[in-house]
């Protein structure tokens, strides 16, 4: 059965000086501020599309690896996956690096 997850962003202003709020509708975990400086400079307590991609990638990879290991007869007891997403202003995402530690 297919599932649909929903999030939305409200943005005010232009790219450089504007600001927005990402809302996670499906989970109800809250509202998170976003801005261009949070993407291209320091996060300063704000999230970014790249951080959200890192969260999605690390959690999806952990679930898939856990399933694959269990299917091969070597289930893990714990997996920690760190995703680092590199963003270059003017170019976009230039890399995603995963580091996995498991037991």
TrEMBL record:
Pfam families: OsmC
Coiled coil: none
GO BP annotations, alphabetical order: response to oxidative stress
InterPro entries according to UniProt: KH_dom-like_a/b (IPR015946), OsmC/Ohr_fam (IPR003718), OsmC/Ohrsf (IPR036102), OsmC_Ohr_Peroxiredoxin (IPR052707), Peroxiredoxin_OsmC (IPR019904)
Superkingdom of the organism of origin: Bacteria
Any one GO molecular-function label of the UniProt entry: peroxidase activity
Annotated NCBIfam families: osmo_induc_OsmC (TIGR03562)
Protein name: OsmC family peroxiredoxin
Organism of derivation: Streptomyces sp. SID7499
């Amino acid at each position: 059965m297919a599932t649909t997850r929903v999030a939305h962003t409200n943005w005010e202003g232009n790219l450089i000086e504007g600001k927005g709020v990402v809302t996670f509708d499906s989970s109800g975990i809250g509202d998170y501020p976003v801005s261009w400086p949070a993407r291209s400079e320091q996060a300063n307590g704000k999230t970014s599309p790249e951080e959200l991609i890192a969260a999605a990638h690390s959690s999806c990879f952990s679930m898939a690896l856990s399933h694959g290991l269990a299917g091969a007869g070597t289930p893990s007891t714990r997996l920690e996956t760190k995703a680092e997403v590199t963003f270059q202003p003017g170019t976009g995402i230039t890399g995603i690096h995963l580091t996995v530690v498991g037991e």
